[in-house]
Design a protein that fits this description.
This protein is mostly helical and about 55 residues long. It has two helices and no strands.
């Protein structure tokens, strides 16, 4: 592992990175939020199904 080589690659990546525009940020936030809600909904549906099964929760 060559430390100077690693540092230069990190600096190069940081130079290429840019702050997202408000539109990009809102789109990513919406998609991430929708994913969180979807996973929660699936978990809730599984919980409801298990609660009504004999010997469930």
């Amino acid at each position: 592992m060559e430390v100077p080589k690693d540092l230069t690659s990190y600096v190069r990546v940081l130079k290429l990175a840019s702050t997202p525009s408000r539109e990009e940020f809102m789109q990513v936030s919406f998609i991430a939020g929708a994913g969180i809600v979807l996973v929660g909904l699936i978990g809730f549906i599984i919980f409801v199904i298990m609660a009504f099964m004999p010997g469930g929760v």
